[in-house]
Amino acid sequence: MIAFVLVSALVLYRLLDTTARVLNIRSLQTEVPAEFQSWYDPGRYRKSQAYTHANTVLNLVSSWAGLTVLLLFWFFGGFERLDAAVRSLHLGPVATGLCYFGLLAAAQEIFGLPFAIYHTFILEQRFGFNRTSVATFVQDKLKELLLSVIVFGLLAWAILSVFERFGPGAWIYAWLVTALSSLALMYFAPKLVLPLFFKMKPIAAGELRDSLTDLCRRQRFPVRDLYVIDGSRRSAKANAFFTGFGSNKRIALFDTLIANHTIPELSAVLAHEIGHAKRGHVWKHLVAAQISLFCFFWFASWFLTQPALFAAFGVSRPSYYVGLVLFTIFLQPLSILLGIASCYFSRRHEFEADRFAAQAIGDAEPLVSALKKLSKDNLANLTPHPLLVGLEFSHPPVLARIAALRAQSPTHHGDAPSENPAQGATARTIQPARCPSR
């Protein structure tokens, strides 16, 4: 009965997700929305629709394939067979659990690798985004593997050790270990992890740095430094983010973002990121994540004492390491609901950060212009279906964001691209040569 309910929930959600994606494809409009008339030529707009369609097909194939493999592994006794294989090594409970985790993680990585290769070297290449070489792709995968072995291997060792030492009541210790580890990663990632994948250099002295530094000063937002990172080595897409916390906060702008946006637009993008911090979004997400982890280990402590739940997965010998794996599957339907709620609050936070940016700059138009450029350059779907937005979008659709910004803007400067000389010298585009060399 437990197995039937769980399988039904997983399949029903996959059907709901598929319905949302099909509706999303069917809702693609043939005409460019009025807000983007002067930004999108018909050919590029059709290209953005083709890009949405291609990504949708890949997502549906990979997600259904993943669910099928999981169910086949389950129904043919994969969890039990793998447990018997690692137990035969006689390594002790913790080492056996690490082998169990490692083999499942390796299988998952191998399963996802063909989809990652297709996405990077075929789909992204077809639409002009891919700049990742085969050597860079392989190096990134090896670095990710090494980090996973070190970080998650140590974390898994600590969690299994406390469960073996204290039994199901160890859930509180497991949560504390996980919470402290996540905080440590947030603090040290800017200095230790990001440089493994990107070359980061401080933004060179000049008008851009002065403008961004002045914005941080006016908003009383101290940062360790402002960086440009070589995102163009992997993709033509642009992005910006800040990472770390406390005295270790860093602002990072992709070189592709700097190359294609004006100083006012970049200031607006930075103001948006500052808005997330000033409105407490970072800490709210962090607290929500820790509460989720707390509940996860609390519920897991009950699950680990229920032989019937192990039996539902065909496992005859309960153990902490198998139980934690099975519990993550058992919890997936609830995780889906929590993910929908998380996306809802994330979209609200994006609106709040947009409002903060418009107020900090004194004008909504630079951020509107930046959003339009990012949407056009990244071939974003301008009219996603509401069902898909509700299920998965962490950011509101761009037209909704622009409408909200316009509603609060005291002036309206039209929808012409900001490169128009009539907008004045302060809106001149940053040239690629102004980026620090990679």
Walk me through the structure.
It is a single chain. The protein is mainly alpha-helical and 438 residues long. It is built from 16 helices and four strands. It has helices at residues 2-26, 42-75, 78-87, 93-126, 134-166, 171-197, 207-218, 255-260, 263-278, 281-303, 307-312, 320-330, 332-361, 365-377, 386-392, 398-408, and strands at residues 200-202, 225-229, 240-243, 250-254. Strands 1-2-4-3 form a four-stranded mixed sheet, with helices on both faces. A hairpin with a 6-residue loop joins strand 3 (240-243) and strand 4. The longest helix is centred in the N-terminal third of the chain and has 34 residues, at 42-75. The radius of gyration is 24 Å and the shape is globular. Residues 412-438 have low confidence and may be disordered.
Helix/strand layout:
Elements: H1 2-26, H2 42-75, H3 78-87, H4 93-126, H5 134-166, H6 171-197, E1 200-202, H7 207-218, E2 225-229, E3 240-243, E4 250-254, H8 255-260, H9 263-278, H10 281-303, H11 307-312, H12 320-330, H13 332-361, H14 365-377, H15 386-392, H16 398-408
Parallel strand pairs: 2-4
Antiparallel strand pairs: 1-2, 3-4
